[in-house]
Fold this protein.
Amino acid sequence: MPTTLPISAEELAAWLRLALARGLRPAALRALLGAFGLPQNVLAQPFAALAAVAGAQAAHAALAEPRPDFAAQLEALQAWRAAPGNALITLADPAYPARLLDMPDPPPLLYAKGRLELLHARAVAVVGSRNATPQAVEDAARFARMLAASGLTVVSGLALGVDGAAHRGALHEQGGTVAVIGTGADLVYPPAHHPLATQIAAHGALVSEWPLGTPARSANFPQRNRVIAALVEGVVVVEAAQRSGSLITARLANEMGRDVFALPGSIHAPLTRGCHGLIKQGAQLVESPEEVLDALNVGQPPGAGRALASPREQRRQKVPVPVDRIQRDDTSETPQLALELPRPEPPTAHRAEARKSLASLGAEARRLLEALGHAPATVEILAQRTDMAEAVLQGTLLQLELAGHLDALPGGWFVRASCG
């Protein structure tokens, strides 16, 4: 199990000073450490020696006076390190993740909470939209659960939507989960994920490259994404718009030689366009976690197909197939199922005229339509997503169908109308 090396007070102060130095990029700091060894040795060098290794700008940054609040930051770091479960991992520490050393600009310091061994395990990222559809949340949890049950550590960014679902799905499985965050390790963003972050710190690992007290800033998250991409062997994008941080993670992973996987979705759903774009660019289209495991040469856990089937898949298995949908192939006596669902009849002119705008619908109808998303769902699925009483749910479904916003399919399934 990886453990961090003891650090003297002098070395700790030197590490923090260089990590906080404005204008000293990680790649330049790495070059200086490679040339002079310990950080206190770097600070002891003359300007000319530092400039010869990393350039004048890096030399000026390294030798600049520390910030006025440096003493307070150092004291806070010492107190944070003393708390159980907290660890500061320096670039020179054996506990530093080897995969990050392949980056041109590895973070000089990692603030970690929890199980450090997960930072060295075989891992896969599961990322996607913050404003995820209910189906994407279900898919992220299911993929993460299967991947972690197979021994892979699931890495994500603790954001709302897909990230949170991935962490929850993997949290108590064999591989566990790692959250790479875009704030200081003493803060949680978004605040709604404070209980989840506490669970991850207890059962998985939280890691940040940002100094303690660093708030959430938009510029921090793309930088965080490069750490996610570097820690893993592959990235699974569950759902993403055309402009999405998940696509940044996928691009960085591809540049680092990692595998990129993307889940397809409806052509009518805005949040699947990013995934479709990745597939067009060469990402592997996957419809099940087993495909990811096969691509990474990871075996499935025993009984995975039965124990880890999603609730939606379990319900789908119970849907009876109408007798009139069984057809016989002309060249075989074996009954075969028709491959295509009966297409719903197009709305009539009267129905098109009766179509109401979403704004004119009641709050329950709008909530149900949002829960339906762009993939077929049963009444049971919608009941789970909305917590509506059965009578209210059935009445709202009828209202939406009459208004032309959804269609009823055979087997008790509902789908958003293509023209709605």
